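STRUCTURE:
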């Protein structure tokens, strides 16, 4: 079984810029795990443990969903945390740009994946890019340390990616399927 999820991947330039920002934070913000820049993504839907044999059919389903959407532009905006503000679980970068197009794409993917037996999550969709996990500092965490990522980071979204998680590898996420958005839409 492979642990799969559907995501929007960042461009190499956007990942490098966000990674440079994260590198500046590392000495000041004690998180146990910093995400490798090649692993930066915006999750569209988590699928979980799935038979490897299903990857072709899921990629075909994602291609059908992606064909209903035109490419769009996203960027990075602000930073925040999930979990207790003094000891957060996740440090994230927020999303700006055509977030409505991203939300529509996400709804299409969830609807399509439901036909393959994947149950939609009950919680609202909150797109973000995970930068680090599990704060472990001796001092209380403060957003004053983090500030905001550079606002000039943006990229064009042309595809959805089906990722496999390789828990003990770096980078950890492997592309196993690609679904291109339609230029004719």
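SEQUENCE:
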């Amino acid at each position: 079984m492979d642990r799969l999820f559907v995501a929007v991947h960042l461009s190499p330039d956007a990942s490098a810029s966000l990674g440079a920002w994260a590198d500046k934070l590392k000495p000041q913000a004690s998180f146990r795990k910093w995400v490798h820049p090649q692993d930066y993504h915006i999750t569209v839907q988590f699928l979980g443990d799935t038979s490897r044999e299903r990857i072709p059919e899921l990629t075909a389903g994602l291609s059908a969903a992606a064909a209903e959407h035109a490419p769009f532009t996203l960027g990075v905006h602000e930073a925040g945390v999930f979990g207790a503000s003094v000891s957060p679980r996740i440090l994230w970068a927020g999303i700006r740009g055509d977030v409505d197009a991203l939300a529509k794409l996400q709804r299409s993917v969830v609807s399509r994946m439901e036909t393959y037996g994947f149950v939609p999550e009950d919680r609202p969709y909150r797109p973000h890019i995970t930068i680090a996990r599990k704060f472990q500092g001796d001092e209380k965490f403060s957003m004053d340390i983090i500030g905001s990522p550079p606002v000039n980071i943006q990229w064009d979204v042309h595809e959805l990616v089906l990722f496999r998680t390789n828990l003990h590898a770096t980078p950890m996420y492997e592309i196993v399927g690609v679904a291109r958005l339609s230029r004719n839409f």
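REMARK: The chain is about 25% helix and 35% strand.
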